[in-house]
Design a protein that fits this description.
Elements (H helix, E strand, L loop, with lengths): L4 E2 L6 E2 L5 E3 L6 E3 L38 H13 L13 H14 L12 H13 L11 H9 L3 H13 L3 H18 L8 H13 L8 H20 L2 H8 L10
Antiparallel strand pairs: 1-2, 3-4
Helix pairs in contact: 1-3, 1-6, 2-3, 4-5, 4-8, 6-9, 7-8
Protein name: RGAP1 protein
Pfam families: RhoGAP
Organism: Irena cyanogastra
């Protein structure tokens, strides 16, 4: 043992320089004396790849569709499990320090995430999801397609606007498109919960800057002023699209969206 770690059988720490037994399949570590008490079966762990501290969405997406990052799936699952009775979901902030700590912990864990059930305040989980999306190098609505989303949402005729938005969504990179679809279905469930008191307008105000952002990493003050109300309009229009449209992107491989 080079780095002291706890024995998975007795729980006490295996000290530096001591001989230990480690399973080559599941990486279970234990004292040599605890070998007899070790469970006979093990579950191979998937290869561990820590995520980058920042990147585009595809850097965090799995290799099989739907291409929704595990962090997003796990946060959404936790929120829907115990958060749909919370007033002000996504509007009420979680403790900043806890949000930063959990985001750092999840990014460091990579694809094998620790359970979020130990996070007492569900608003912290909401904060982690929002902070992850805000921290991407470019928003879910990519820089190149940003103007097209704004133009589509500005079309006064609802049917024409919906058609234009569907076309622009289909042009997104697969990971961005699948994740946007997954989030839209989630936000629609939040908007339909009377306890949350978060209708489409409230959610679009919260998620407009996060999901739509600007057309560049360093927008001018004038661009920020022009974009801000239109960001909310884009999200509101996206949430007005029928759930069947969004389900078409994520339900073909729905079993892959089970949180790890």
């Amino acid at each position: 043992v080079i780095r002291p770690e706890p024995c998975h059988v007795c729980g006490s720490r295996i000290r530096f320089g001591k001989t230990a037994i480690k399973c080559c399949q599941c990486q279970l570590l234990l004292h040599t004396k605890c070998r007899e008490q070790c469970p006979s079966l093990c579950t191979p762990r998937p290869p561990h790849h820590a995520w980058p501290r920042e990147g585009v969405l595809a850097d965090f997406a799995p290799s099989t569709p739907p291409l929704v990052p595990t962090l997003v799936v796990q946060c959404v699952t936790e929120v829907e499990t115990r958060g749909l009775t919370e007033t002000g979901l996504y509007r009420v902030p979680g403790a900043e320090q806890l949000v930063r700590e959990w985001k750092r912990k999840l990014l460091r864990a990579g694809g094998v995430l620790p359970a979020l059930s130990s996070v007492t305040d569900i608003h912290v989980v909401c904060g982690v999801l929002k902070d992850f999306l805000r921290g991407l190098k470019e928003p879910l609505v990519t820089f190149s397609l940003h103007p097209a989303f704004l133009r589509a949402a500005d079309i006064p005729d609802d049917a024409a606007s919906d058609t234009a938005l569907r076309q622009v969504v289909s042009k997104l990179p697969p990971a961005n498109r699948d994740t946007l679809a997954f989030l839209m279905l989630h936000l629609l469930r939040v908007s339909h919960s009377p306890d949350c008191k978060m209708d489409v307008l409230n959610l679009s105000r919260v998620f407009g800057p996060t999901l739509v952002g600007h057309s560049s990493a360093n927008p001018t003050p004038l661009a920020i002023m022009d974009d801000t109300p239109r960001q909310c309009k884009v999200v509101a229009r996206l949430l007005s699209l029928p759930p069947s449209f969004w389900k078409g992107f994520v339900e073909t491989e729905q079993e892959n969206l089970e949180p790890m």
